[in-house]
Amino acid sequence: MKGEVEHRQSSFEPQAGRGTISRFLEDDHRRLDALLKRASAQPGSIDRAAYDEFRRGLLKHISMEEKILLPATQRVRGGEPLELAAKLRLDHGALAALLVPTPTFAIIRAIRSIIEAHNRLEEGPEGVYAMCEELAGPEAEALLAQLKAAPEVPAAAHVDSPKVIAATRRALARAGYSESLLDD
Question: For the whole model, what pTM was predicted?
Answer without folding.
Answer: 0.88
